Fold:
Amino acid sequence: MKTLTALLIVFSLSLCSALTLNAGKNLNFEEILEILIDLSNVLNIEPPSTNTIGSFVYIAWGDHIVSKIKGGDLYVLDNEPFEGGIPTEDLLKKLKIPYHTRDNEIIVPDTIIKSIEMIGRSLVVEYTGKGSFDFEMTNDGIVLISIGEVFFNGNVYGSGKTFGNFPVKGFKIDSIHREKGKVIVNFKESGIRTIKIRPINERIDPFDPNLTILVGYGDGRIIFRNFAPDFKGVDWKVYSETKKIVYELARELGYLVEECPVYKLPIGVPCFIVLIKKPDDLKLLNEYLKELLKE
Amino acid sequence: MRWKLLLLLLIPIDLLAMKLMICYIDPVSLNPVLKTVEVEGDNFILKLFDILASPPQDLMSFVPKGVLRAYFIVDDIMILDLDEEKLKNMDFLSERYFIHTVLYTIFNNLKTVNEVYFTINGERRRVLANYVDIRYGFPRRIWEEWPVKRMK
Structure:
């Protein structure tokens, strides 16, 4: 029991990295415990616990139980018996852990990608584990490259392999914000910005380098997106730039300003909605925007 | 002596009562109108939503009756779980003003809450009904004040 506790402490303190296991090996009790501790780090879940009941010693890990009789050679994994230890692949399959084989070795990823999503003008990657991936800009967009063993969409990607490609032509990386389990990449346009006025029912392309204004009829107000605490400050720059333009325009037109996260206003993109009071206001809006471009 | 006893008896009753600042809307100008309401007993968040949904005769509210299914507070974050059925007929203005009145009232009554998240029928959703993005938190810094302003 002392050995198990020591193992628990040592492995809890160790950094998680890709697990490399022998393909044909039968794992004993201590080795199974060691693997489950490492997997807990990668999956970011509760580590396994061990206990003894009478002559039985067992490991509990989530819904799974591995047990054996002290001094015996029969192992039971979730009611399935194994003589002389549990084969590595059987253990991983039974626990539904992704892996791939390379040169007679089983490699368990150190990073599991939960989602990759383009939110407004930001690429948001959510993961568990070490976060062994990086970003590279190409002529066509941004690619995600594995720098360890990354599991994504049913495949494991070894170091140097690309596993995601997003077209963001004409943009470059502005900042990369990393926190535990999440990376946010922000882009900025490399071209000169112009202003586009579109009807309110149109969709804003987050990678259109223009400042886009959606116009509809209403009670004379301008609606723009607030910053969100989830973005840890990376959306503040666009928020303050947009706010400045919106406030000046509202002063010119005598309009109300309203902060609201309207879904059709993409995050991290300078854009807003103008609800004009009367058709003449559209002329004023155009004139003001022409002045703004001259500045 | 009797007066002192009566005074002593009144103190705990007064401590149990809580003064809430409730935000209703002027139907003509759409400006916020604040009313102070005294609430007694526990479960005052549910009571707050009931009061929000029952405006005085000359005012209006964008908060439907029974819209709050549950609420949770974790550290300085509040999660409000709403009933989809009660939100489904909201238009662009109703959705925005529902968010504004609820948040403005919450942030002005619960000083320890700094972020509010919305869930619908117990699930994370993209939008409240059709228009307002509820994927991310709503910060105190914006909704502690009324988020609609007239520029001078």
